[in-house]
Known about the structure:
Helix content is 39%, strand content 24%. The protein folds into two domains: 31-111 and 208-251, 3-Layer(aba) Sandwich (D-Maltodextrin-Binding Protein, domain 2); 113-206, Periplasmic binding protein-like II (D-Maltodextrin-Binding Protein, domain 2, 3-Layer(aba) Sandwich), CATH 3.40.190. The protein contains nine helices and twelve strands. By secondary structure, it is an alpha/beta fold. α2 packs across α7. The longest helix is centred in the first third of the chain and has 27 residues, at 2-28. The chain has a five-stranded mixed β-sheet. The protein has a three-stranded antiparallel β-sheet with strand order 5-12-6. Strands 1-4 form a two-stranded parallel sheet.
Amino acid sequence: xxxxxxxxxxxxxxxxxxxAEQLMAQVETGNTVQIRTIAVAPYGIENNLTRSGIYxxxxxxxxxxxxxxxxxxxYPYARIISELKTGKTDLTIMFKYKELKDYxxxxxxxxxxxxxxxxxxxxxxxxxxxxxxKTLGYLRGAKFSDEIDTNIKIKKYRTxxxxxxxxxxxxxxxxxxxxxxxxxxxxAYSIGMVNIFDEPLYVSERTPWLxxxxxxxxxxxxxxxxxxxxxxxxRGELKKLQHKYRIDxxxxxx
Length: 254
């Protein structure tokens, strides 16, 4: 009987070892995590062959800490949303979207971001109703305010990025732009148009989430991923990246 129990323990140990070896083999031979970061500075920045940004670097830290292979690209919102549905994208950081509710698992939140509407100096908007009859520069694929999205009296001009929206605003082709304050100011700095804005109208607050496609083949549990990501946030890596990309200085955070 004792010999049988010993043999049983050895068999269990061998099975665990075999499973671990198979898992590592999958990782090493092509179980590559497909990461996509939104193409919105300062979160995802692509210049020629160089990629960077707050969310881009955060996701890379997660993969590094998790010791997994990854293939990381910077894509527009709409393409990431489509790929999360099909499983072509495993992991991303962005807002929650209603159309993704059944397609992703929300892992961990980041600090909430304030969404604003902002016009040129001398053209301040004090309420959403002030926008009726106006044209709003709106990032293609994004959703920043349900109240504005459903108001058919507010015209929306879809832009490729915030820099395009700011340039159109400066030329009088649109009346205001909408989006999180951070990328708007970051884009304004990048094109030398910082001091053109009036006071912003705060229209919503939304929380970015680390999220994974339900069709992902990622070989880690949700709890492991959540623990690894929260550890990165606890270490203060997000604050370091905000400082690196000058966000604290740009939006006046302490």
